[in-house]
Amino acid sequence: MTKAELDRFKSILEARRAELGGALRNREDIAIEKTPDALDEVQLAGERELAIRNLDRESNLLRQVRGALARIAEGSYGICMHCDEEINLKRLNAVPQTAFCIKCQEAADRHEFEEQETLDSLLANAA
Fold first, then answer.
1. How far apart are CA 18 and CA 87, in angstroms?
2. Which of 98, 103, 115, 126 sits CB 3.0–4.6 Å from 67 for a disulfide?
3. Which residue ranges form the domains of the chain, and what is each CATH number?
4. Contacts of 58 (CB under 8 A, 6+ apart)
């Protein structure tokens, strides 16, 4: 990977980190509200659950972005964390925070290897 490509991915990831960091600060949607109407409470509970899921998803994505930035800093960005092969540029363009090549990601999605151990080490480095 060239220095220009690496710089481009770094700027994309930094912008994404700033965007996600701002979104995670807004937690007003998870506040518990009481209403006298039971149907309104059910609706509010559903909206709160959706907000919590979105917050969790964005939090996980932020950890992945921080991990990718850490890999850039240490010089291992663009290398699959499982098989140590180079990740295709098309994949990095689509998912710049990815830690796995497409083949290993598919295996991880099928739980064919212990993805959690790799992700735990990534998250520890990103924090």
1. 25
2. 126
3. 3-126 (1.20.120.910)
4. 20, 23, 24
Write down the H helix ranges in 1-127: 3-25, 38-74, 89-94, 102-109, 115-126
Judge whether 45 and 73 are in contact, CB under 8 Å.
Answer: no
pLDDT above 70 (res 18)? yes
Residue 91 near residue 102, CB atoms below 8 Å: yes
Can you read off the two tokens belonging to residue 109? 């999605």
> Count of CB atoms within 10 A of residue 6's CB?
14
Q: What angle do CA 108, 70, 16 make, to 5 degrees?
A: 80
pLDDT tens column, 37-55: 888 888 888 888 888 898 8
Give the pair of three-digit tokens for residue 14: 């930094």
